[in-house]
Write a structure and sequence with these properties.
With 423 residues, the protein is an alpha/beta fold. It folds into two domains: 226 residues, Type I PLP-dependent aspartate aminotransferase-like (Major domain) (Aspartate Aminotransferase, domain 2, 3-Layer(aba) Sandwich), CATH 3.40.640; 103 residues, Aspartate Aminotransferase, domain 1, CATH 3.90.1150.10. The protein is built from 14 helices and 14 strands. The strands form four sheets. Strands 4-10-9-8-7-5-6 form a seven-stranded mixed sheet, with helices on both faces. Helix 6 links the parallel strand 7 and strand 8. Helix 2 packs parallel to helix 8 and helix 9 runs parallel beside helix 13. The chain is globular, with a radius of gyration of 25 Å. The two termini are 29 Å apart.
Length: 423
């Protein structure tokens, strides 16, 4: 911590006192981007893993090794699936090795082919899971207020080649389920929801998970509840659940009998042990996320041009993502320059989901005739900034990060000049 000294004038003939050290908090000095020292020595991440109680976890891991069944739907996988069905109120949960494979198997089980409508404002796995199977993602614009698919724009993109819709509950905010279900039923389409962000979201007894034909959760390390790496397909359709379970285990229906085409998409028992240990902290981690969101709201309340996205009742959110939008005119600095200045302070804010799937390969090089028409997506890609939260971030961290945001905005011209000079 930087130290400066202060001396006071004394009467003639008296002894001059020793200099008194005055400590100065790091975030009272120059911004790192302007030559100061970073405010945080250790980075504060978006999506730092929530770690369950290690003693409990180690007991479960010991039980896995002692039982000798590390995979092939061991006992902890079965218990984990049962717990997920109870929490979501959905009939079937098929645990997977990761969320992307769950999306791929879900799409194949639904018979998706040819063209499928999907948002461009999402993690690229949503689109890749389709394209990897030879399905053409048709990118649809989003509602700029919710960041979710706009049903009216979905309807306008349907052609004879369309076989389905993949919607995303972005940030855990429910997509327009009823409207999309009505479109899918009316137009004879399959409907899948990417619920990677949404575990634990929704009112008690009606959590996200039962929409459309099926939904897909991610239990990646960055998610609210994690299995270190994992995912799941959930559905109320008995026949669909049977097909998904076949596909995620090579199509085996008996010890030596394969009855369908399949791959290895199974969750292992070690991952399920992490998941069960994580589920025991569900209420605790929800409380931490809600506390942190309230702290961020207080920290940013007086910062011009930086506004937290707000939706629904707090008890219906998991608040795993602290999503702000930056109005460059009101803030006096662009979102990108603000993010870069924060990252210089070891506050690793992110530009989710920049630059949009349509501006990534292979989609960027193969647009439809006339290109992608996604003005709302382009706008939110320019504005969205996701900030650190989770159990690895304290309220004092958030207060300090909020002051940094305020100082970067206040010095917007100088920060912009420094970044553009070094670009």
């Amino acid at each position: 911590m930087p130290v400066k000294t202060e001396t006071r004038p004394t009467a003639p003939g008296t002894v001059t006192p020793k200099p008194r050290p005055i400590t100065r908090p790091a975030d009272d000095g120059d911004l790192a981007i302007l030559g100061g020292r970073p405010a945080f020595g250790r980075p504060r991440h978006v999506g730092a893993p929530n770690i369950p109680d290690r003693e409990t976890l180690m007991r479960r891991l010991d039980a896995v090794f002692e039982g000798g069944r590390l995979s092939n739907r061991g006992p902890f996988v079965r218990i984990f699936e049962e717990q997920v069905t109870k929490l979501t109120g959905v009939k079937h949960c098929i645990a997977m090795c990761n969320g992307t494979v769950a999306l791929e198997i879900g799409a194949r089980a639904l018979g998706l082919a040819d063209e499928v409508i999907v948002p461009a404002f999402t993690f690229v796995a949503t689109a890749h899971a389709l394209r990897w199977q030879g399905i053409q993602p048709v990118f649809c614009d989003v509602d700029p207020a919710t960041h979710n698919l706009d049903p009216a724009k979905v309807e306008a993109l349907i052609t004879p080649r369309t076989t389905g819709i993949v919607a995303v509950h972005l940030w855990g905010r429910p997509a327009p389920v009823a409207e999309l279900e009505a479109i899918a039923e009316r137009r004879g389409l399959r409907l899948m929801f990417d619920a990677a962000h949404a575990f634990g979201c929704g009112p008690a007894g009606h959590m996200i998970g039962g929409g459309g034909d099926l939904e897909v959760f991610s239990f990646h390390a960055t998610k609210f509840i994690n299995t270190a790496e994992g995912g799941a397909v959930v559905t109320n359709d008995d026949d669909l659940a049977r097909r998904v379970r076949l596909m995620q285990n090579f199509g085996f229906t008996g010890l030596d009998e394969v009855s369908a085409l399949g791959v290895n998409g199974k969750m292992n028992d070690l991952a399920a042990a992490v998941g069960l240990s994580s589920l025991e902290h569900l209420e605790e981690w929800l409380a931490v996320n809600r506390r942190n969101r309230a702290a961020w709201a207080d920290a940013l309340a007086a910062v011009p041009g930086v506004e937290l996205q707000n939706w629904g009742r707090p008890e219906n959110r998991n608040d795993q993502y602290i999503v702000a939008e930056v109005d460059a005119v009101a803030a006096g600095i662009s979102r990108d320059h603000l993010v870069n200045a924060l990252r210089a302070e070891n506050v690793l804010a992110r530009r989710y989901f920049y630059p949009g799937c349509h501006n990534m390969e292979p989609y960027r090089s193969q647009p439809p005739a006339g290109g992608w028409n996604l003005p709302a997506t382009e706008e939110v890609c320019r504005r969205v900034m996701v900030l650190p939260t989770g159990t690895a971030v304290s309220r004092s961290d958030i207060a300090r990060m909020g002051r940094l945001v305020a100082r970067v905005v206040a010095k917007g011209d100088a920060v912009t000049a420094a970044l553009e000079e070094n670009s």
